[in-house]
Structures are given as structure tokens and as C-alpha cells.
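Retry 2 of 3 after timeout on previous attempt. Resubmitting C-alpha cells to design endpoint.
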């Protein structure tokens, strides 16, 4: 049992040190334990959005299309997209992200086989339903939303957070 734990730890370490895949000059980072906190900590006091999606989720692709439009319209929008697909699906995830062309958005891909543990670390009340989006305000307030977002609501949040009219 001790050996299995050591091997699992070694595997995760190797994954986190492995070079991330690049997508038209943009890297896709491996999302492992601690990644969520890393994303949030790096943006403390700044507004941003984290969107969790999957290749098999129809509404996710609708949202990716919406976010494509929004990052073009509001280049100041700090968007992080995280695919909950298996790390072995990197090529398909990369191809999908290329289609949606999300600009300078930071991109991640689940790289831990224990997805329940990753979801629990993100949000103890999240059971894996997709799409799942988190809105982090500059004031520290956070909102979580499962399901398809309405573009007008997201635009309203962006305008409020970035002081736009």
C-alpha cells in the first residue's frame, strides 16, 4: 500500500513537471491538486472567470462560443478555461480550443485520474455537472453557476467588474 502511494505521488509529480501542450502558441497546463488554488491566488483582488467544460458537453461548446465573442469584445476579461476531460484527450481538447480561439485565456486540462478529488478541492458542493462557471469579483465575492449562461448576464457582470458602460 505504501508503495502504491509512492508511485501515485511520483506519477503526479511527473505530470506536473511535464511540458504543457501548446495551442497556437498558448499552453494547456495540467490541472492537478493545488492548481485551482494557484489560479485563484495569482488573481487575488482582480476580477476573473473560471469555466469548466468537457468535449462531451453540448452546452459547454455553446458557452465556449459565447466566451470567444466576449474575450474579443472585452479584451480585459481574465478568462480561465479548464477541460475536465482526461489528460490523454489532450489532442482533442487542443483542437477544440483552437476552433474557439479564446485569445489570451489561460487553459488547463484535468491531469489527475481522481476527478472527484479535484472537484472537491474546487468546490465541495460541485458534483461534476457541466458547464460550471465561477465568477470572482475584485471585491472578493464569488459566484458559481452550473448550466448554460446567458450572454447578457455575463456581459453585465463584466461591465460591472471592469467599470464599463
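Retry 2 succeeded. Sequence:
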Amino acid at each position: 500500500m505504501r508503495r502504491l502511494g509512492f508511485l501515485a505521488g511520483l506519477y503526479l509529480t511527473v505530470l506536473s513537471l511535464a511540458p504543457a501542450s501548446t495551442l497556437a502558441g498558448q499552453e494547456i497546463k495540467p490541472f492537478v491538486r493545488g492548481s485551482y488554488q494557484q489560479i485563484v491566488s495569482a488573481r487575488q483582488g482582480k476580477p476573473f472567470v473560471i469555466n469548466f467544460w468537457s468535449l462531451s458537453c453540448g452546452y459547454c461548446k455553446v458557452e465556449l462560443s459565447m466566451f470567444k465573442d466576449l474575450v474579443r469584445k472585452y479584451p480585459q476579461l481574465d478568462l480561465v478555461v479548464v477541460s475536465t476531460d482526461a489528460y490523454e484527450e489532450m489532442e482533442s481538447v487542443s483542437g477544440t480550443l483552437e476552433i474557439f480561439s479564446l485569445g489570451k485565456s489561460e487553459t488547463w486540462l484535468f491531469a489527475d485520474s481522481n476527478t472527484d478529488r479535484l472537484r472537491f478541492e474546487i468546490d465541495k458542493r460541485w458534483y461534476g455537472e457541466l458547464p460550471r462557471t465561477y465568477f470572482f469579483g475584485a471585491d472578493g465575492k464569488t459566484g458559481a453557476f452550473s448550466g448554460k449562461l446567458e450572454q447578457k448576464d455575463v456581459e453585465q457582470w463584466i461591465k460591472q467588474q471592469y467599470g464599463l458602460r
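Attempt log closed. Residues 20-162 form a domain with the Glutaredoxin fold (CATH 3.40.30.10).
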